[in-house]
Each structure stands twice: as C-alpha cells, then as structure tokens.
Amino acid sequence: MKKARTEIGRNIEPGRILQESDLPKLPYLHNILKETLRLVLPMQGLPPRASSADCTIKATTSPPVQCSSSTLGDAARPGALGRSRPGFKPERFTGEKEEGEGEGFTNFKYIPFGAGRRRCPAEQLGFRMVTTVVGVLVQCFDWEPMSEEEVDIKGLQSLTVPKGKHVMAKYNVRECMVDALSRL
C-alpha cells in the first residue's frame, strides 16, 4: 500500500484524482494487480479442449479428440512449473515486458486470462479498468483490516472463484483527497 501510494503521489498532481490516462506512469500499481491475479484467479480453469492428433504430455499419450481440461491456477501458483513462488511479491513483475509484447505468449507466471490464441480478448480493457479503480481506492482512502487474522485467498469451487470467506476492511477518506472527492 505504501509503495503504491508513494508511486501515485510522485506521478499525479496533488488534489487530482488518478485517471486511466495516468496508468502508464504507475508500473508498481500494475505489478500489484498482476500479482493479485496470479494468486487469486478470476476463473478456475479453461473450458475442455479436444486434440486433432496424438498428444503426449509427461509420457502419457492421448488419442485424437479426447477431451482434456486444465487449471490455470496450477501453472501460476507456488511450486508450479518447478519454481518456488511463495507470498505476495509484486516486484516479481518489475522490468518485464507487458503481456503480449514481443514474440508469442511465453510468460506463464501470469496467465489469469489464458494464453496464446485463446487468450481473453477483453484482457487489456478489464485490466485497465480494475487498475484504475484500485489506484483511486489507494489514492483516496486509508484502509485497515477489521480482523487481525490472515486473509484466506482460497475460493469456492465453481467456474468463477468467489471467496470462501469475505475480506472485511474499514476505510477513511484521506485528508488530502477530501476536496477532490467533493468535486465529483
């Protein structure tokens, strides 16, 4: 929260509320959203796929047209793909190209919107909207948890991933943003 607020304070004029056009100046805020989506995916997995030819994965060969399904979370969470990735660490995305830049989609540490040809076409729109909203919430309000217990990020089993236990927080308008918010 402190790092994101510092970044916003350095790049947005005092008394002005963050706007979508400010997002290119806020890479750490982007990293926070990427890390959140890495840990808590909006969907459990991808729809089942069918192959048109024999397919071998880890010494198991499947005949053509056999349906298979995959879970995005398995590739993005700690221990996936032989890598250790514990905890909430937005810095893991620092210095990386934005998804979709350059050659192909090969960065599998961040795949909440799928990958390759079947990647979500609305990824950029959704990401920009959510990043703008989270940025405004960080900029304009002080937040504190209503409980000292650690947040349970496990979701319920369904197509989307609703929280098993809601996160409760208190907020107060930051004094420096009262005038800007009163003009809305």
Tell me what the structure shows.
By secondary structure, the chain is of the alpha+beta class. The chain has a single domain (about 1-45, about 60-180), classed as Orthogonal Bundle (Cytochrome p450). Helices cover about 30% and strands about 10% of the residues. It is built from five helices and six strands; from the N terminus they run H-H-E-E-E-E-H-H-E-E-H. It has a two-stranded antiparallel sheet with strand order 1-4. The protein has a two-stranded antiparallel ribbon with strand order 2-3. Strands 5-6 form a two-stranded antiparallel sheet. Strand 2 and strand 3 form a beta hairpin. The longest helix has 18 residues, at about 125-140. The chain is elongated. The model is unreliable at about 80-85 and about 100-105 (pLDDT under 50). Keywords: Heme, Iron, Membrane, Metal-binding, Monooxygenase, Oxidoreductase, Transmembrane, Transmembrane helix. Pfam families: p450 (PF00067).
What's the layout of helices and strands?
Layout: H1 2-11, H2 27-39, E1 49-50, E2 55-57, E3 60-62, E4 67-68, H3 72-76, H4 123-140, E5 141-145, E6 169-173, H5 178-182
How many individual helices? 5
Distance between the termini: 24 Å
Strand fraction equals 5-15%
Give a count of the beta strands, DSSP E runs of length 2 or more.
Answer: 6
Q: What is the CATH C-level name?
A: Mainly Alpha
Low-confidence stretches: 80-84, 99-106
Q: Helical proportion?
A: 25-40%
Q: Which class do the helix and strand fractions yield?
A: alpha+beta
Assign an overall shape: elongated
Strand order of the largest sheet: 1-4
CATH architecture: Orthogonal Bundle
Radius of gyration, Cα only, in angstroms? 19 Å
What is the count of structural domains? 1
CATH evolutionary superfamily: Cytochrome P450
Question: Looking at CATH, which topology would you report?
Answer: Cytochrome p450
Task: Let me know the largest β-sheet.
Answer: 2 strands, antiparallel
Question: H/E series, N to C?
Answer: HHEEEEHHEEH
Overall average pLDDT = 77
